[in-house]
Amino acid sequence: MAAERNLNVQVLRAVAAFLVVVGHAAHETEVMSAALGRPAADLSAVNWGFGVDIFFVISGFIMVYTSADLFGRPGAWRIFLTRRLIRIVPLYWLLTTALLVGALLMPQLLNVPISDWKHVLASYLFIPSMRVPGEIRPVMALGWTLNMEMFFYVLFAAALAFPFRRGMAVLTLAILSFATIGLAFQPEQVQLAFWSQSLVLEFLFGCLLAVAFLNGARLTAPVAIVLGLIGFAGMLKVPGLDGEPTAFDGLRWGVPALLVVAAAALSPGSSSRAVLWLAALGDASYSLYLAHPFILRPLRNVWINFVGDSISLTVYVLVAAAIATLGSVLVYRWLERPLLRWAQAWLGPSSKRPAHAPEQAAALS
Q1: What is the pLDDT of residue 274?
Q2: Which end of the chain is more exposed for a tag (fewer CB within 10 A), N or C?
Q3: What is the mean pLDDT of the chain?
């Protein structure tokens, strides 16, 4: 089953990563505000983490979209997981190592809480682990999304043992079961508590959307635009409703994210120059997601020392997001792509994606 490159989804990957960067840049201004005596950028009316919800839905969509022909094939789980590990591990391990080295050499700059060697090992192995009391995150905090991705990949790989329809039924049942455990029992065991978050439903939303796509579901451009606008409106926080994370976040943010992804995936494609440029940025979205903290933190210090309080910190958010985006393109070209080629060559031809398969989402990746 051939899977052609979906430019709309690639563009949406770029948008999702950019939302996360803007949110983190705004967070940096809280520290800058104390140093400069200027108000921090108040962008709190928007859930900028909505980019992660979009990534999770995209991930579910692309896994089914690109791997539908693997269902029921002998050794499919091994092929799938090998490709996923090649795509996710090299850059993440490299940047995690860089963060650990930086934390040892410049602890005052990075301020990375490292509990013990077990937590470090769990971070490399994508096993949920407590970073500090009450916070289940790896050494690189934003890598929590990759821990969730890897859990989904394992469930997906198990479902590949069955023919397509039965495999999708097994996957749906597994994800619903974990989400139900989380909602009904709120387990305290660290790994089960993490894996049973309602956010896991967002992967299922993407999977079911891909099934609809493969069965011919499409949207006209006007309908897609309206659906996308409704979805993006869902990222606005409702006073009195959206405060601390809740057990229902997978529905609260996942449903609007599904509308956004559906608008992109099911709408007519375009090959205009602007779309191609944004799709190219979507290719670099994994680098943007992982590398932007390494760009924002030094830039924050540069801004404090050389720009000072002469310009609104909202301008910093815009400048920092733009510089992080450009920097991620360089990381993608000079680090991510060479690492990907090396890993594919090391693991052999069977690890390579078919020529027709699009760049796969990471999580976001």
Answers
A1: 87
A2: N
A3: 91
Three-class secondary structure of residue 210 per DSSP: helix
Between the CA of residue 276 and those of 7, 273, 281, 327, what are the distances in Å? 7, 5, 9, 19
Segment 332-350 mean pLDDT? 87
Angle between helices 254-265 and 7-36 (to 10 degrees): 140
Name the helix (H) or strand (E) containing 282.
Answer: helix 273-283
- Report the C-alpha gap between 64 and 203 in whole angstroms: 10
Contacts of 166 by beta carbon, 8 Å cutoff, 6+ apart: none
Burial string for 65-85 (b: 16+ CB within 10 Å, else e) reads: bbbbebbeeeebbebbbbbbb
What's the whole-number mean pLDDT along residues 153-174? 98
pTM for the whole thing? 0.93
288-301 per-position pLDDT tens digit: 999 999 999 899 99
Nearest to 60 by CA among 152, 143, 148: 152
| Residue 151 identity (one-letter amino acid) | F
Q: Is 321 within 8 Å of 23 (Cβ atoms)?
A: no
pLDDT band with cut points at 50, 70 and 90 for residue 346:
confident
Contact 287, 335 (CB under 8 A): yes
The maximal CA–CA distance of the chain, rounded, in angstroms, is: 64
For 208-267, write each residue's pLDDT tens digit: 999 999 999 999 999 999 999 999 999 999 988 887 888 899 999 999 999 999 999 999
Q: Look at residues 365, 258, 361, 281 and name the one whose alpha carbon lies nearest to residue 328.
A: 281
Inter-CA distances, 16 with 197, 225, 281, 337, 354, Å: 21, 17, 11, 20, 26
Q: Who contacts 293 (Cβ-Cβ below 8 Å, separation ≥6)?
A: 24, 140, 142
- The structural domains of the chain, with segments of one domain joined by +, span 7-351
Length of the chain counted residue by residue? 365
Phi, psi of 247 (to 5 degrees): -70, -10
Q: In this structure, what token pair is assigned to residue 119?
A: 């937590």
